[in-house]
Amino acid sequence: MFLRPMIVACGLVANLAGPVQAQDSETDVLFDLLMLPDIIEIMREEGLSYGDTIGQDLFAGEPSAEWAGVVEQIYDYDRMTAVVREDFEASLADVDLAPMVDFFGSDQGQMIVGLEVSARRAFLDEAVEAASEDAATQARAGDDPRMELVEEFVEVNNLIETNVAASLNSNLAFYGGLVDGGAFGGALSEEQILTDVWGQEGEIRDNTTEWIHAFLFLAYAPLDEADLQAYIAFSETEAGEDINRAMFVSFERLFNGISRSLGRAAATQMTSQEL
Question: How far apart are CA 103 and CA 30, in angstroms?
């Protein structure tokens, strides 16, 4: 359910006071049942690490303390949570949330979400991620029955295409930030940017496919087969499709905004080094 772009998520429609309060309450309940505050904190930690990588790739020498401070500001937890919560509410404003609350509020649903969050946190350790990728590769090559269920889950939720699209959009936003910040002296045209970003599609698709299978194979390893099949069945319902769509919509603005801010900040840093 949780997406991971490579660069790395509007208000409610006005209505009568009573229904809006009920919707807000139910949306907040679902927001917490999905453990989104926890996953946003993990994404923040991933982002800080990614910001350090950008610094090492783009700047001469080790990233400065100033750059680290800028990255900290960009990945501000409270702001990230506010953006995701606002878009989460907006994306579900006209949707019946009861089936989602019922599923994710059940013992089975909470177990599944908890495993997803635990696996995402475990992936902060590069050694765990690498080992999981190796295990998933072997499982895919050996027609492992659990991996077959994972692949069915990935297909039902269209996780590869949506994550690839999100990654490409985030990378495009990063380039936009570089241009906004005056990098390359304005010599980079829109056509060149699009060509370069689209040229990354194959690599992004391969990396995304590898990461998603490794992550889900690790996350769902403790699940009984019946629990994973139940999750797949829920994903095929209208409620499952609605929450899957909402998850991507809820993080889209956050990812693109962060990417553009990183690009703009990187351009400022690069320009100051040239002076």
Answer: 10
Could you say which DSSP state residue 237 is in?
S
CB 153 within 8 A of CB 231: yes
Helix axes 98-105, 238-274, angle to 10 degrees: 80
Burial (CB < 10 A; 0-12, 13-18, 19+), residue 14, is exposed
pLDDT for 221 equals 96
Contacting residues for 148 by C-beta, under 8 A, at least 6 apart: none
Q: What is the DSSP string of 194-231?
A: HHHHHHTHHHHHHHHHHHHHHHHHHHTTTS-HHHHHHH
Q: What does residue 113 show for φ and ψ, rounded to 5 degrees?
A: -65, -40
Mapping DSSP to helix (H, G, I), strand (E, B) and coil, where does residue 275 land? coil
CA distances from 262 to 61, 63, 76, 148, 190 (A): 18, 13, 13, 38, 18
Which amino acid is it at 171? N
pLDDT over 70, % of the chain: 89
Residues of the chain with pLDDT under 50: 1-2, 5-24, 275
> H-helix or E-strand containing 63?
none
